[in-house]
Write a structure and sequence with these properties.
It contains 3 helices and 12 strands, in the order βαβββββααββββββ. It is α+β, with helices and mostly antiparallel strands.
């Protein structure tokens, strides 16, 4: 069985593509993905509002979406406008329940699409929990319960809305090796 070391970065690419596709579909606006992913020592919920979801199965990890308030409002407002909501009903504050609910739904769709892309490319599946969405006043570090939590590979990717507001995906994954079994 030939083995090939497979970087966590391939998962990061797939999850980043999922986020870009979901934001475009729901808002009809493009977002820009940074050209560089940063390895980080651990993942945390930070910014003005954050959503996180754990997944487990053939692979295990956590996806976190961290938003500056303006980025969350950009995405939620554009999504609600795209659904035909009148301007007077569009939320004006990042702390509103409607913003949290919409960010949670977006995180759910993003992790679902990311898992689907991983299934398609690597024939691996995982189930996800329901995303948790929290307004942030201080960063909250998250970790996976594992025999070797230090072994999780953690990466951060930056996204920019059309109005130049930032949000981030942090992904913590167990490292894996791709194996091709000869039939």
């Amino acid at each position: 069985m030939p083995e090939k070391n497979t970087s966590t970065l391939e998962f990061v690419r797939l999850f980043s593509r999922a986020i870009k596709d979901i934001v475009l579909r729901t808002t009809k606006k493009n977002i820009r993905i940074s050209k560089t992913a940063m390895r980080v020592d651990g993942v945390q919920v930070t910014g003005d509002i954050g959503a996180f979801v754990a997944f487990s199965g053939d692979y295990n990890g956590i996806m976190i979406l961290n938003f500056e308030g303006d980025a969350a409002l950009d995405i939620v407002s554009d999504s609600l406008r795209n659904m035909g909501l009148p301007e007077e009903d569009i939320p004006k504050h990042v702390g509103s329940d409607e913003v949290r609910q919409n960010i949670g739904e977006m995180a759910n769709q993003c992790v679902g699409k990311g898992r689907s892309l991983v299934q398609e490319k690597f024939d691996l599946s995982a189930k996800a929990n329901i995303p948790a969405v929290v307004p942030i006043t201080v960063p909250i570090a998250l970790s996976m319960v594992s025999k070797e939590p230090k072994n999780f590979e953690c990466v951060r990717v930056s996204f920019t809305t059309e109005k130049r507001h930032k949000f981030y995906m942090e992904l913590a994954l167990e490292p894996f090796v791709e194996m091709h079994i000869d039939e």
